[in-house]
Specification:
The protein is α+β, with helices and mostly antiparallel strands. 32% of the residues lie in helices and 18% in strands. The protein contains three helices and six strands. β5 and β6 form a beta hairpin.
């Protein structure tokens, strides 16, 4: 299982997401240090990578919380919707946990 955190320099949220992701991985019995950090440095790279904003978490190349239809790609801060309806610069921890469990189950 390949876990990636894509981010860009202008995003203040990626360190928090990295910590939350590592907590979830640890809780699920997976290696929390296996997260591969990938910095997106240009709009051209963002287009090539189909990067909807920072932070983006991908497991085995798939966005754990795919962006909505028509979302542009580029160097921007990403907005997530929490389970209680609020917006957040980080994904809901339960959504993250479910995504990790779903992918991990497919690897067992």
């Amino acid at each position: 299982m390949t876990v990636e955190l894509l981010w860009w320099e202008g995003c203040p949220s990626y360190p928090q997401v990295l910590e939350e992701l590592r907590v979830v991985l640890r809780a699920e019995g997976l290696d929390p240090d296996a997260v591969r950090l990938r910095e997106v440095e240009s709009d051209e790279q963002a287009e090539r990578e189909r990067f909807p904003g920072s932070p983006t978490i991908r497991i085995d190349g798939e966005d754990v919380l795919p962006p909505g239809e028509g979302q542009p790609f580029g160097l921007s801060c990403r907005i997530y919707r929490l389970r209680d309806g609020r917006t957040s610069p980080t994904p809901d921890p339960e959504d993250l946990r479910e995504a990790v469990r779903r992918v991990a189950a497919g690897h067992r």
